[in-house]
Amino acid sequence: MSDPKRILLIRPSALGDVCRSVPLAASLKAAFPHADLDWLVQSGFEAAVAHHPAVTRVITFQRREMALAKLWKPAGAGRLRQLLGELRRAHYDLVIDAQGLARSGFFAWATRAPRRVGFANARELGHLGLTQRVEVPKEMHTVDRMLALVEALGVEARPEMRLYAGETDQAAVPAALTRGRYAVVAPTSRWAGKRWAADRFAALMARMLEHDAVDAIAVVGAHSERAQCAPITEAFAGDPRVHDLIGGTSVGGLMAVIERAAIVIANDSAALHMAVGFDRPMVGLYGPTRIDRVGPYRRAQDVIQPTPPAMGTSHKHTQQGSAAMGQIQVEQVLDAILQRLRPRGVESSSGQAHKEVAPRH
Question: 220: exposed, middle or buried (C-beta count within 10 Å: 0-12, 13-18, 19+)?
Fold first, then answer.
């Protein structure tokens, strides 16, 4: 193919998936260094990719406004027309649909780009708007599946997971955290079957402080998840070492907090994929999900999963998921944390040390 001058990468959601899609941008930019690369993402998630050096421009849309029920209303229809017009006027040469759903496939088709690449097995008939449908085994890790799309173009896949936080967000990290080394605890998940019990998180945090493992702990989550975190916030109310950031950070702010963390402890959630992107020590808590397909990329050694999920087990089945998560013990997680924490004084002044990642072969 001739070198494209304008590329659109479509990966609107979910937040963790957006974070782990950055290798596509890195691969495309390395192959076509003079091309402009835009990213279409759900509004609210733009900070995850806005500062990546491979990304020229971020285009956003409001997911709720694109729901079919809203499109029948003048306001929703008007915003959709505006977005589609913007996509057409960009005159993209190449579009990559890394989402593989009806909406992302529709956006790819709407660009009228001469080359529109995506998954042959896209759900919801999302493949219909593509000009090149790539057969990718579902058993592959999500990151490798997405990289297969650029490999189909003859582009070398570069599994560079590095994320970039904005300077404003970096400057806004609470000074009380940065005076020492701190852990980030992300105790929530959208799916109840993926959650480790909040009272166990509270017990774990108490044990971490008893061991003087860190100077402070930042508890993070969305404002809508505050009720999930109640056993934690109540247990540490008034403790100056525990910082309640639930609902208090934007996506960019969360990235900046994770970027400087000594360690990140989380359920299967976006926080883990951010930890991968900033090469932070981490402990991921998994029960009903397949780490070989959706776990932190190339960091399976940093996951605690008592038993691999049985065939048919789903995180959407709360009882199955909770039973699996319930097998994870507090002392087991504490041991993993203590093993991964660097000796005090080893961290750089920024609190991070990124590794170079070799291209995938």
Answer: buried
Evaluate if residue 46 carries a pLDDT over 70.
yes
End-to-end Cα separation, the chain, in angstroms: 21
Question: How many whole angstroms separate alpha carbon 266 and alpha carbon 336?
Answer: 13
Q: What is the pLDDT of residues 152-197, one digit of tens each?
A: 999 999 999 999 999 999 999 999 999 999 999 999 998 999 999 9
Query: Does residue 97 sit in helix, strand or coil?
Result: strand
In terms of DSSP H, where are the helices of the chain? Answer: 15-19, 22-31, 68-71, 74-89, 102-110, 142-151, 167-171, 175-178, 198-210, 230-235, 251-259, 270-277, 291-294, 318-325, 330-340
Query: Where in the chain is CATH 3.40.50.2000?
Result: 6-151, 167-340
257 contacts 184 by C-beta, under 8 angstroms: yes
| Surface-to-core class of residue 86, CB atoms within 10 Å of its CB (0-12 exposed, 13-18 middle, 19+ buried) | middle
- Architecture per CATH, domain 6-151, reads as 3-Layer(aba) Sandwich (3.40)
- Judge if pTM exceeds 0.90: yes
pLDDT score of 347: 53
pLDDT tens digit sequence for 4-41: 999 999 999 999 999 999 999 999 999 999 999 999 99
Superfamily for the 167-340 domain:
Glycogen Phosphorylase B; (3.40.50.2000)
| Burial grade of 154 (CB within 10 A; 0-12, 13-18, 19 or more) | exposed
